[in-house]
Amino acid sequence: MKFEELQELGQKEQRRQQKLKQRVFCCTSTACVSAGANATYKAFEKAIADEQPEEGGTDLVKTGCLGLCSAGPLVRVETKGEDPAFYKDVTAQVAQQIASRHLPQESIEQAALETIDSQVDLADHELSPEIPFFEQQVKIVLTETGRIDPENLNDYIAHGGYAALAHALENMNPEEVCDVIEHSGLRGRGGAGFPTGTKWHYVRQEQSDRKYVVVNGDEGDPGAYMDRTVMEDDPHRVLEGLIIAAYAVGANYGYFYVRGEYPVAVDRLRQAIRDARRRRIIGKSVMGTDFQFDADVRIGAGAFVCGEETALIHSIEGKRGTPRMRPPYPSTYGLWGKPTVINNVETMANVPSIISKGAEWFAGIGTEKSKGSKVFALAGQLNNTGLIEVPMGITLREIVYDIGGGIPDGRAFKAAQTGGPSGGCIPDQFLDTPVDYENLSRLGSIMGSGGLVVIDDTTSMPEFARFFIDFSVDESCGKCVPCRVGTVQIRNLLDKLIDGDGEPGDIEKLESLCDFVKRQSLCGLGQSAPNPVMSTLQYFREEYEALINQPDPQTAEV
Q1: What are the distances in angstroms from CA 160 to CA 17, 149, 230, 389, 421?
Q2: Number of Cα atoms under 13 Å in the Cβ half of residue 129
Q3: Residues 447, 367: Cα–Cα separation, whole Å
Q4: Exposed, middle or buried by CB within 10 Å (0-12, 13-18, 19+), for 284?
Q5: Which tens digits make up the pLDDT trace of 32-63?
Q6: pTM for the whole thing?
Q7: DSSP states of 269-334 as a string?
Q8: Any idea of the CA torsion for 495, 499, 504, 509, to the nearest 10 degrees?
Q9: 59, β-bridge pairs
Q10: What is the C-alpha to C-alpha distance for residues 356 and 165, in angstroms, rounded to an integer?
């Protein structure tokens, strides 16, 4: 199907939406579902009459994440001629009140009107879109999340979907697409921050009868759910980025590699692929051109190490998910020995916007070496937690105190942990540090895929570090001795200290062991596993020293 035909579908959907008097967007992303959003949606469904007039009716939309997950379930009501209304903590009873306030009486079932709880005060549930949590964000990847139905291809097209792919196919050759991505400054959002355009150029230049593109959706950091949300709530955006990448590097097949704990993401990606195939957006003739492309989903077994690209490749091939030595790199010897591009979900989701708006537009956001925006899962001891997208270069203070709303109960900020089990802790003296790849690395942490955990002054840093070491011990594939054995010995030393059995010299042993594991491990899991311990030793050493049992001076003299 040519893009003009797709546009007609999108325009038809736009006309349908324009006729409506209201659209009720009920967040059914995983975070809100865990807070009861399914019951909220059913309450709206029950309240809204089945038979509505063609003109001026109400549209109930199962949409994606609205961001402020700690206040879920969230609902947005758009009424023609009025400003949108936002609501938080929307239970089934609150949903009935919202329907009564915003929807015409003839659009509401009489039975629903009779069961409205008069004690519910909607003022307690109103949420202003002008609070810093929303106002200080810059949406690129999440621009349509919470605004479209993720299971409706026509809705995605109505919001500009697949226009970037059409532009690339009609107006750019593959080399030019690689150039635009390179000049934009987009770096891999999976953790390492490698320049995306450079990676694409490497694969583009390889001579091979077959090439592959892979979306890494094996997000495994504790507390991280950025990629899951994008896959669940805007699957066609990620698919569009994947197709553009394939066109740029000369690949005809792609895979989504998704962790098994994300069943909703798997289902929606598969539906997006089916819908795109049915509309001939992918297949033997992509949008009526001679470019061929198809895609599929592969489900991981929940191994954190499979986020490492060579382990991921082994897993897709049906082998045990363990890493291998590099070089050769996947760009020359990847999936089934063929040149392969692997980018994470957020990286691919940036691509359509860059192709549509240009490299200069994207490069104008962020810092000199870290361009664009970054999606974070903001978690921990904060008043506002949830999914945010902010420009590179925003300070930690702005994230914690403006967007995050500060620490509950007036407690003091102690540290922010970025990068998950591979990252480090950043103490309060660096609150005004701009958040980008270089600054986080300089402070002993990493950007990672986007987990950001804030902790207050009640937290023990040795215990906090042990939590992440426990995770790394459990997730080690066991292929190399430094990681398999070394992480266990790090944990044993931490246990000894925390249990009150620490001795002089134990801290120095811990530092030496961390350095050894970091330098000698085979892959990124082992190389970065000591980071939480090393960063807490660097900034909170006194907490470790307080755990050392000093010898009795009288006993020492004897």
Answers
A1: 15, 14, 17, 20, 37
A2: 9
A3: 14
A4: exposed
A5: 999 999 999 999 988 886 545 455 688 999 99
A6: 0.94
A7: HHHHHHHHHHTTSSBSSGGGSS--BEEEEEEE-S-GGGGSHHHHHHHHTTS------SSSPTTTS-
A8: 0
A9: 23
A10: 9
